[in-house]
């Protein structure tokens, strides 16, 4: 099965209908965001709104600033200028309580970052117990519920090296959900996976979207973006070039740079 086929299989089905109240959702407001690494200005004044419960997919070529934008939202990178607000927290305020803010945010990276010496269940309970102060019983009950959400409850006693890449990424999603986040950030979560496992991960993400989770997703999976995103943002060279509903941005892009990018992605063999 090709990667495109796996993506399409994972995103076919009924129209998205979020379940109100399934998740406590936080919105994001980004204003005038700049970020440089030395002389390289990666973000050049980003303005963006993500409403509570909205799914926004960031697309664009490698090096366009998408991942840096995501890392700034979680303050894994410190912006040079601009403001970011996540829910009730102004993430860029000098006195922000970063620990409290980050408890609202779950982040899933390209690599799974699971503890290799711990079981799936232990990977999902260690942070709630240490950070939230949950009891062993409470954390295990929540972890099993989230593993069930991603279809891996039956593998809770396995170690990461006994799982496929796609299964490990779904564990990483479940682990993030055990912290009861109000916002999920996904940084190309399928880029390190075999094509046959991509669909399972995208299906888990689609399930979160249908339940009303606020999601900001960096992805090259155009099928997922087309079917699941409320809005698609195309970035190039640190700027937002075009944004709007997926049917418009992917199906009928207006900007020449967006058109060129999508032509190369959707028809890589075309001249």
TrEMBL record:
Mitochondrion as UniProt keyword: no
TM region positions: none
Superkingdom per UniProt: Bacteria
Domain ABC transporter stretches: 28-262
Topology term for the membrane: Peripheral membrane protein
Short name of one Pfam family: ABC_tran
Keywords: Amino-acid transport, ATP-binding, Cell membrane, Membrane, Nucleotide-binding, Transport
Main localization, broad class: membrane
Molecular functions (GO terms): ATP binding
Location relative to the cell: Cell membrane
CDD domains named among the record's database cross-references: ABC_HisP_GlnQ
SMART domains: AAA
Family, per entry: Belongs to the ABC transporter superfamily.
Protein's name in the database: Polar amino acid transport system ATP-binding protein
Organism, as annotated: Nesterenkonia halotolerans
